[in-house]
Amino acid sequence: MANISLADHVMVFDDALSPARCEALIDRFEVSAEREPCAREQGHSFTQLDVTRHWPDESAALIPVFLSCFKQYQFATNAGFWPPKFAFEHIRLKRYLPNGRDSFPTHVDVMCHDAARRFMTAILYLNAADGGETVFPHLALSIAPAPGKCIAFPPLWMFPHAGQPTVSKPKYILHTYLCYPASPQM
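The structure assignment produced for this chain is given below.
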């Protein structure tokens, strides 16, 4: 059996969404009244829209796209203990401006009890941007945004990652998680 590294668990799926579909989502985002700033002092900064909540039509169309990437991931990693039932966390569309503030410093996606339900992360880029790479500093990986490119990886402490600032134009992404289902009451 070949040696498998942690970097092998960060997978890229090109052309998960067509460039025309990506551009249509960006255009809809830019005219939407549901956008909201999201920033923490000394932390992340971007503008987002909860697609699942505000655009149920888009959410329904995007879930199969993410499911396809997750199924490819499951097959490629031979993930035999993949949960038979799972849920999606809300899909969010995020915009990072080239303003010197918008970015997402190095972090992991599970840092509290509520987030511990997450077992997979997916980021789907909607455009190419100068800069804006998703960097995994401990794995020596840097993934450049491109329209329709999706990356998937576990959200755990072994996979710290950062969204680098863009240089000359905004970066747009779709972001979601697969989560373990809620336990039945005992």
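Interim note for the steering committee: The longest strand covers residues 171-179. The mean pLDDT is 94.
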